[in-house]
Amino acid sequence: MPDADSNNGPAVGEDAVTADVIVVGAGLSGLVTATQLTAAGKRVIVVDQEPARSLGGQAWWSFGGLFLVGSPEQRRVGVHDDADLALSDWLGSARFAAGADRGEGPDRHGYAWAEGFVDFAAGELRPWLHAMGVRWFPLVQWAERGGYPVTGLPSASPDTEHGNSVPRFHVTWGTGPGLLEPFVRAAREAARAGLLHLRFRHRVVEVLRSGDAVTGVRAEILTDDDAPAAAPFSGRGTPSSREVTGEVELRAQAVVVASGGIGANHDLARARWPREAGRLPDRMLSGVPDSTDGLMLGVAGEAGAALVHEDRMWHYPEGIANHSPVWTDHGIRILPGPSSLWLDADGGRLPAPLYPGFDALGALRHITSRGDDHSWFVLNKTIMEKEFALSGSEQNPDLTGKSVPQLIERVRGRSVPVRTFARRSPEFVWGTTPAELAAGMNALVDGTPGSKGHIDADALAAMVAARDAQVLSGLGKDPQVVATRAARSFWVDRRIRVAPPRALTDPADGPMLAVRLSVLTRKTLGGLWCDASGRVLDASGEVIEGLWAVGEAAGFGGGGVHGHRALEGTFLGGCLFTGRTTGRAVAGQLT
Fold first, then answer.
1. What does the alpha-carbon distance between residue 154 and residue 160 come to, in Å, rounded to a whole number?
2. pTM reported for the whole predicted model
3. What are the residues facing 256 on neighbouring strands?
4. pLDDT of residue 2
């Protein structure tokens, strides 16, 4: 970006304080919205409270996973998928309130966005991105498998029919940075053409209104905050100063909120967590930078915007503390294969089908209902090397750096980031026997203030022996053993994601390993209530003229496109879909 658009200095000239549209947030959804508008010839100001180094927001740190339906990548690995099956899976997972399909109730807009997104994922999404140079890792992954009964009928159970029937998780070649690149490039081109002004270190504290219409924003100007020269990733994502040096009012015909959710605000997440699911623990990790604070949602609320489904969140139970943190309480998610035993804090197995990779939210709610602050994967070295992947662009240098030699090492089960974590993280506990493993697990918990739980060595040994007997039988009736055997029927899983069926105690695969898992905050599924084009609504369902929302701030569409559960690959996709749809809608309404 030109220097004049990349600082926190005072706005100079009429173009710097007025525009056709103000976009609040320079993450993926904000950039997509802004570039859709500039492509239509509209003048746009994008404001963001973070420094220029964090352009792209959370998406830069992501694995780059996209939910695509009926793709060439699916067909190449023998997966048969279509929009009808995908929508069935989506609705079975979302469990929208009754009447949503008839345009009634608080979920009606989320339902409409869900239908639109599935059509987009089965249609225009891939060719649109492909035309901009985006490509994908050819081996499609199977996330959120579910494992609950499929009836095709409405059910009182929130679990029935949850999950992806087929693999749909497409990893972008280049991960999050690769997905961002065409939109950053388009923004740079728009800036050179004088259509886009990007103003960093501007924190919006008020949405301005004249009568019934939104006319702009008031923003505090924050102090310059240069990252230390030695900061990793050039200081991207590091906490920045909140010292205020000035204030400015910016005017426009429309304001689009693209500020993200509340994932870094643990107090707010705890306050909104549904009571029937227990309580989020005091000790948690953050999967998003500190700037994901939910501030702008409150500012929009003060301007009359309705916030809906605030108790719907998508946090992960499989978090481990980053050995080289960038932001506060920085955590990484383990993306597991299905073979590890998943135990609660006292060593009990999580109930079926809460196996690794099957139902993240169901596992989390089980853990919080017990009042635990952690759970455990129990496995061995071979399973770790075959089945563990780590979330995030920085944890996947092969995919992020588009390195084929490194990727070959991953396929061979020699992922360097996983091995580095295993070596450097105290959350990885090793043992040659279940008794030795239990002693190490208890020592780790005892050394963590406020943490509770105890693993009985004899009970762990008996559980491991029973599991191994089921696996070595060649068939086995244990539901997890059956599910793991079914996973091997998918060619990609058999090749790169599921370990051979052997005993945990087999010395050739050892030593044994237990990994302590913590709650990792991530996504907000609720948000600003919006209609089918992204116009923000008030509590009575009336449009607030001139106010729009996209991305996570809009619950990825309509205030909650996912309902109660997500299917993975749909968060980045939701940012793309809402930014594209709403950007075009705003452009069409401007005078």
1. 9
2. 0.95
3. 23, 548
4. 37
